Amino acid sequence: MGRIFLISLEGKFYSCKHCQTHLALSLDVISKSFHCRHGKAYLFQKVVNVTAGTKEERMMLTGLHTVSDIFCVGCGSNLGWNYISAHEKNQKYKEGKFVLERFKLIGP
C-alpha cells in the first residue's frame, strides 16, 4: 500500500476533531445553515484529505440526491458527504460540493 501524503492548509481552516488532519479552509465555506442527523453542518466548495465512499441515492430534506460519504484519510472517521448530483433543478448548486458535520470538526 502506498504512503498517504497529507495536504497542509495555511490560514484559517477546519480539521478533523479526532486526528487534527486538515480538511478545509474557512474561505471555502459556502453555507453554515445546513443540517445533518447530528445537528449543524457546513457546505464547502472544496475539501482535502478525504476519501469517498460508495455512490448512493439518498432522500434528504431537499429531495433526492446522489451522494457519497466522505472519510478522513488520517483516521477514517465519517465526516459528511459529497453531493454528486441533485435531482431537483433548484438544488443543482450543490453538485460537486461537500458537507462536513460541525461536531466532527475543530477550528478555525
Give a structural overview.
This protein has no helices and nine strands. It has 108 residues and is mainly beta. The strands form two sheets. The protein has a six-stranded antiparallel β-sheet with strand order 3-4-8-7-6-5, with no helix packed on it. Strands 2-1-9 form a three-stranded antiparallel β-sheet, with no helix packed on it.
Offer a concise description of the structure.
With 108 residues, this protein is an all-beta fold. The chain contains no helices and 9 strands.
Any chance you could write out the topology, listing elements then pairs?
Elements: E1 13-16, E2 22-25, E3 29-36, E4 39-44, E5 50-60, E6 63-72, E7 78-86, E8 98-101, E9 105-106
Antiparallel strand pairs: 1-2, 1-9, 3-4, 4-8, 5-6, 6-7, 7-8
* Architecture (CATH level 2) name: Beta Complex
Our measurement of the CA-to-CA distance between the termini, rounded to an integer number of angstroms, reads 32 Å
> How many E strands?
9
The average pLDDT value, as a whole number, equals 92
CATH T-level topology: Metal Binding Protein, Guanine Nucleotide Exchange Factor, Chain A
Physical arrangement of strands within the biggest beta sheet: 3-4-8-7-6-5
CATH class category:
Mainly Beta
Low-confidence runs (pLDDT<50, min 5 residues)?
none
